[in-house]
Structures are given as C-alpha cells and as structure tokens.
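Q: Here's a chain of 301 amino acids. Please give me its 3D structure as tokens.
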Amino acid sequence: MLHKSKKSFLGAMVLLCFSAPLVAQTEVSGFYPQKNELTIAPSYSFKQYDRFYRGTELTEGNPAGLGSISSYIVNLYGEYGITNWLSASLNIPYIFIESETGEPDPVQGTSSVEGIQDLSVFLKGRILEKNINSLGKLGVGAAVGASIPIGNYEAEGVLSLGNNANAFNANVMAQLTTKVNFFTEVQYGYSLKDNSDFDVPNAQVYGIKLGYFNNYFYTHVQLAVQDSMDGLDIGTPEFAEAGGPRALPQTEVDYTNINVNLYIPVYKNEIGVSTAYNQNIDGRNFSKETSFSFGLVYKPL
C-alpha cells in the first residue's frame, strides 16, 4: 500500500492535463485521486503562432493575414475523488486572443477577443488494477464527459475562442507503472460535436505518455494527436463557397504535438507548482503554435 503522502502526491498528478496548455492533449489522466480528495489547480498559459497549416501545407501567417496571434489563458481545474476508483472533474478557461499587428478579424471586426470558453465535466473510473510480475502495476480506466459553451462567444473568424459546439467525449486509457516509479500511459478518445449553425467534425484523440515521479517531483513527456473525421480544407473552392473565415468551425482540424510537464510539491504535498511546454509539430488547418504554462496545485482535502 502506498504511504499516505505518496497517495496525496499522486492525486495531484491527475491535474497536469489541464494545468498545461489547453489544446492537443488527452483530457484525462491514468492517475486517480483517493476517496474524498479534492484538488484545485488554477493556471496561466501563453501561446503564440505566426505560421499556419492551410490544409496540410505549412504557410507563413494565418488564414486572414493577421500576422502573429497570441492567446492568454487563465484556467481553473478541479477534481474530487468520489471513491478510490471513481472521480469527477471540471474545467473552465478564460481566454484573451489578439492580433499582434492590430488588424481586425475579417468576421468579428476586432483585433482582440476575450471571454469564458467551455465548461468541461468528466467522470473517470478505474476498471482494472493488476500487478504484473516484475513489470509493475497495470491500470486500465475509462472516462466520459461533456464540454458545453458557456461564454456566448462567436464561433466564426480567426480570433474565435472556439467552435461553440457541445462535445460529448469518451476515453479509455491504460497505464503501466514500474516499481521504480517510471510509467507509460496510452490513451484513446472520441469526441462527438454538435453545433446548430455549423457542421463541426467529430474527432478522435490519442496519445502516449512517458514519465517518472518520486517524492520530490513529477515529470512526463507526451505525444498527442487529434484526427478529425472529415471537414473542409482552408484554401479550397469548397472552403470559399462555405464562407471562407466564417466556415472555420467546419474545417478538418488535425494536429500532432509534443508536451513536457513538470510538477514540484512545495508544502506537505498540499501545495505545489507546475509548468509545461507544448509544441505543435504537424497539423492540418491548424496553427504551428508554441505554448507555455505555469500553475498552482492546491489540495485542501
């Protein structure tokens, strides 16, 4: 059995998915909080891009010629352990996006947009936990969740906060943790999306994570992929006929990125700090962006 302090430390690990930058990561973790554990993680992220994939071709600038685009994100994430194998979580981001050149978005008519984006709620459960001889401990779990737009933001345009779609998500994950605290996690998820004004493509998200933890720090590196099932390509006649920048929610958005996370407890495993670096390395109708994140992890229970 894990020592209580280590249980508390591992409970904080489940928050690193959302205390890191918001896009291109799997949305749940293979770690589970203990019963009645509550963890709260506010974070701040900055991301920027000046190159964009028009279809699969990487080009300078973005679809509307707005130059470099920056986003500033304040995020609040929390998770509560209902039992030792079942937890509930929620996530709310506030986003500010601006064009560095001051050029207005051709649809929204402004050079900056801000507001609350989507409320995400997940229920995650451990299905199986088994010791595998000398390899370590294998855990298998699943999660279901939903994301609901609550900020009344505009989905059209380059500077939009999101696609303003209701999303229903299902994830499965498997994690192998060795006796010396190295771990490997694989995950697959599918997202059904619904918007009454646009045909927003459904998407699958999958990834692999390699990490290590001890009583002094936690770190992981993750390769994550989103693969949309269909959609338009920017720059095609079909995209232009659908409305150009107004049709951005209907594009096929794919991306591959790599992210690195670090968490350090600073006070009795009740308070800790996290940081993350995220880089998109490939994409389709998506930005070639880099992002950084800093967060506080607090465990009042």
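Q: Can you summarize the key feature?
A: Confidence is low (pLDDT under 50) at residues 1-5, 18-25.
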